[in-house]
Design brief:
Helix content: 40-55%
Order of helices and strands: HHEHHHHHHHEEEEEEEHHHHEEEEHH
Radius of gyration: 27 Å
Largest sheet: 4 strands, antiparallel
Shape: elongated
Number of domains: 2
Length: 369
Amino acid sequence: MRAVTGEHIALAAPAVAEKWSRAGLSTEPVDREAAETAVVALYALAGAEAPGEFVWCRSPAEAARLVAEAGADPAGRFGPSLREEVRSGPWLRARSELQSLLGVEAFARAWRETCGPIAPTVGPLIDQISSALVGTTGNEDGQGSLLLALTFADHGQHDAAWLPLFEAYREARGDAEADDDANPQRTDRLILRALARVAEQVHWWWPFAHTVVLCERPNTVHVDERGRLHRGDGPALAYEDGFALHRWHGVTISENFAETLAALTPELISAERNAELRRIMLEHYGHDRYIVDSGAKPIQEDEAGRLWRVRLPGDEPITMVEVVNSTAEPDGTFKTYWLRVPPQIRTARAAVAWTFGLSEDEYQPVVQT
C-alpha cells in the first residue's frame, strides 16, 4: 500500500472541489428515496439500527422547531441523538489521523485546495441560517429550545465546508482501502464516505435513534463573486415554507428594504438618512446613474474629462470623473467611462492621473494613450 502524501491529495483536489462547490449551493429538488437509503447505510456502518421513521421538512426553521417541540428525551418519539456516532466522532478521529499522516503544513495546504473554494461560502451560511432561525422567535425560552435543537443538526450539503478534504484523501488512496481491513480507523473513513453520500442527497438533517428529520434544499440561493449571500430584488436564500434571508453582499437587510432596492429613485436615495443603507442603495442603483438622474452638474471640465461631485448628508461626497475613450468602438461611437475618485480631487486631469497612480504633473495623456 503506497503512502499517501499531500501531492497525491492535490492531484485529486480540483475535481473534488468542483463537485462540492456545486453540491454546496445546489437548489435541486431532493430525491427523498435516495436520501433515506443513504441514511440507512450510514446508520449501519455506525452500528445503529435503521431508523423507524423519516420526517421531511421544508426548511431548517421548520425542522428545528419540530425537534425543539419533541425535545431530546431518549424515551421519546425521536430517541437519543446519533450525531456523535455518525458525524462528530468519526470526523475528529479521521482528521487527527490525516494530520498525523501529512503533517500540519501539508494538511493545511490540502484543506485549502479541497475545501478552500467552497468553505468561505457555505461555512458562514450555517451561522447565518442558525442566527436567523433563532431570531424568528422573540421568546427567550423559545430561543433556547431552538439553539439546543441546532446542536443536534448535521448540515448536509453545507458540510461541503469540510467533507471534500476526506473525499480527496479517499481518491488519493485509490484501491488501498480494500487492503486496509485491519486498521480500526478504516471504519471512521467509511462512515465519512457514507456521510458524504447523505450530504450529496439532502440539506440539513437531524439523526436520532428512532426518527430522522430531513430538510429539502432551498429553492433560491444568490451569492456575489466572493461567495457572500447577495441579492437586491428579493431574498438571497429562500425555502419553500417562506423562511428566507435577505442580504446585500453579506450584509443583513430587511425584506422591506429589499423591496425598496427593486424600486429605487434618486429621491429615495437622497432621503435615506442611514449612511450604511444609503451606500447599499447607491451601489445597487449605480453611482454614475445616480449622478446623472439626480440632476447634478459637473464642477470642473478640462481636456481629460468632466469632474462631478454630489454631496451626501453624513457621508463623504460622491466624486467621479467622466472620460470618453479616445479609441472608437466598431460602430464608430466612443464609449464613456465613469471612475470614482477621492473627494479631495479638484480637477478632471488630477482625477484621471489618480487612476494611473500618478500626480497631476506626472500625468502625460500622450504617453498614457
